[in-house]
């Protein structure tokens, strides 16, 4: 069984997804559309896929599922439109720009059976998958500490920051989701300190460029999340899961941007990843492959909108904690 898959949004991640979809077994065709038709046409020509002049034409092109890689504010409308047509959806995070919008989509989908998969690609990374299996096996004993890191080598363009949702919703949300997924536990409380040491445009957008998050999980374990936009050593994404009997470390490989100053310790043999697209390329392919199986009815939805909502609650609590400089319970931001 082969399927035609539609893709809305031909920015950087959208182009990458279109290229990946075109190479997946079971996909007979890819149709792309964008708010800028000429950008979509150029992408279609470059990749040898089909072009639709607008979203309505995309929906009418005989597709069996839709991948959404558009600007965040268009996600709810496209999700609803696809579900109303019976089309399974893969949507890049977030579901919506805020909790109210996310809740509206979750409520709309409550009694509908059309699957909506949200793009948290770390769930499909081999390292995070192995860490989750180690926790589930019990070989780590009881968990006491988790340390998550997402540090960009350089900030995104200034014009991106005001519409990014902020450091916690844009960047940290991946760490919040993966901590829940790896441990199977819920976050109950956060305390945040943020700082601006870099470009003025972060403060102008009421955002921070660096943050440290301390979290308590519902079993009493503690987790820290380090977030930053200025890690000159390279793109650094890791997770340390520490238990009473052992540990599991994700991202500690030959491309981790860690430089020991111990005199006899060898230098890293490979350069660090330049960014998230390279670090998680195989994970992006794996999650889209699973989505094709979801569309074909061969797999269950691995990450629904409610998962995205839970991670968004944590991000919202972090935002509030950073502003008010006090611990915030996750229940205090639930609606």
Please supply descriptive tags for the structure shown above.
single chain; 335 residues; alpha/beta; Rossmann fold; Dihydrodipicolinate Reductase, domain 2; 2 domains; seven-stranded mixed sheet; six-stranded parallel sheet; 36% helix; 22% strand; globular
Please summarize what this structure is:
This protein is α/β, with parallel strands linked by helices. The protein is 36% helix and 22% strand.
Strand count? 13
CATH domain fold name of the largest domain: Dihydrodipicolinate Reductase, domain 2
Shape: globular
Run of helices and strands: EHEHEHEHEHEHEHEHEEEEHHHE
CATH class of the largest domain: Alpha Beta
Whole-angstrom Rg:
20 Å
Number of domains: 2
Low-confidence stretches: none
In CATH, the homologous superfamily of the largest domain goes by the name: Dihydrodipicolinate Reductase, domain 2
Strand order of the largest sheet: 12-11-7-10-9-8-13
- Counted by DSSP, the helix tally is 11
- The helix content, as a percent range, equals 25-40%
| Averaged pLDDT | 96
Task: Give the topology, please.
Elements: E1 3-8, H1 12-22, E2 27-33, H2 37-47, E3 50-51, H3 55-59, E4 65-68, H4 75-84, E5 89-92, H5 99-109, E6 116-119, H6 126-137, E7 143-151, H7 167-183, E8 187-195, H8 200-204, E9 210-217, E10 222-228, E11 236-243, E12 247-250, H9 276-279, H10 281-295, H11 305-324, E13 328-329
Parallel strand pairs: 1-2, 1-4, 2-3, 4-5, 5-6, 7-10
Antiparallel strand pairs: 7-11, 8-9, 8-13, 9-10, 11-12
């Amino acid at each position: 069984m082969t399927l035609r898959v539609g893709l809305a949004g031909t920015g950087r991640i959208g182009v990458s997804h279109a290229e990946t979809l075109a190479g997946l077994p079971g996909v007979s065709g890819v149709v792309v559309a964008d708010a800028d038709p000429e950008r979509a046409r150029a992408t279609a020509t470059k990749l040898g896929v089909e072009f639709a002049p607008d979203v309505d034409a995309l929906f009418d092109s005989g597709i069996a599922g839709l991948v959404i890689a558009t600007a965040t504010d268009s996600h709810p409308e496209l999700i609803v439109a696809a579900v109303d047509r019976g089309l399974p959806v893969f949507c890049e995070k977030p579901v919506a720009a805020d909790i109210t919008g996310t809740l509206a989509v979750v409520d709309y989908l409550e009694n509908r059976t059309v699957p909506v998969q949200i793009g948290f690609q770390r769930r499909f990374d081999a390292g995070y998958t192995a860490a989750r299996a180690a926790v589930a096996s019990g070989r780590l004993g009881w968990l006491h500490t988790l340390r998550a890191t997402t540090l960009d080598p350089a900030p995104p363009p200034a014009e991106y920051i005001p519409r990014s949702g902020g450091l916690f919703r844009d960047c940290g949300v991946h760490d919040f989701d993966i901590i829940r997924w790896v441990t199977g536990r819920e976050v109950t409380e956060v305390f945040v300190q943020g700082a601006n040491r870099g470009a003025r445009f972060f403060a102008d957008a009421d955002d921070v460029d660096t943050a440290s998050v301390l979290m308590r999980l519902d079993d009493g374990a503690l987790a820290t999340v380090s977030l930053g936009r200025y890690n000159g050593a390279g793109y650094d994404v890791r997770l340390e899961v520490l238990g009473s009997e052992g540990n599991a470390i994700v991202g500690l490989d030959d491309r981790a941007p860690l430089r020991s100053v111990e005199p006899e310790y060898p230098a890293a043999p490979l350069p660090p990843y330049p960014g998230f697209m390279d670090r998680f390329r195989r994970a992006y392919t794996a999650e889209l492959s699973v989505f094709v199986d979801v569309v074909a009815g061969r797999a269950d939805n691995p990450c629904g909108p409610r998962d995205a909502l839970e991670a968004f609650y944590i991000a919202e609590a972090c935002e509030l904690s950073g502003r008010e400089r006090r611990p915030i319970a996750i229940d205090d931001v639930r609606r």
